[in-house]
Structure prediction request, 148 residues.
Amino acid sequence: MRESPSKDAAKIKIGRPKKYFLYVLPLLAVLTYSAFLFWTPAASVQARSNHIDAAVDSATITLAELPSEARTTLQLIKQNGPYPYSRDGIVFKNFEQLLPKQKRGYYREYTVPTPGLNHRGARRIVCGTLPECYYTGDHYRTFKRIRE
Prediction:
């Protein structure tokens, strides 16, 4: 016995919502999660930004404690070059917000060569108005203010 066309149409109507929800539900979940992340401030960022100045001021390094390559780079900064890397002296934007907050363009970054590497490596000196300079050996994860 053959089924009537109206029963086939009913089957199609029942099948479509299932496929529709297979695509829509994950999309709604992603959008909801994204909205939650966008409008919810991260506690770690707020806590870190409240203690930026204290954290950087307490972490210091003396000239004697700096690697010899960092002392050489610091001397080049004081002489205003010439610098061995074309990117030395570019604006450091402080995206990590680990240094004291200043207006854009205040900080400049300089490469501290790492022996044995054929690229710039991770070590940098970031300076504001001299003598305000900071050393990072881990590519901006941590900073130590250079004490002279």
Remarks:
- The first strand starts at residue 60 and ends at 62.
- DSSP finds four helices and six strands in the chain.
- The CA atoms of residues 64 and 107 lie 23 Å apart.
- The helical segments are 5-39, 43-50, 52-58, 68-79.
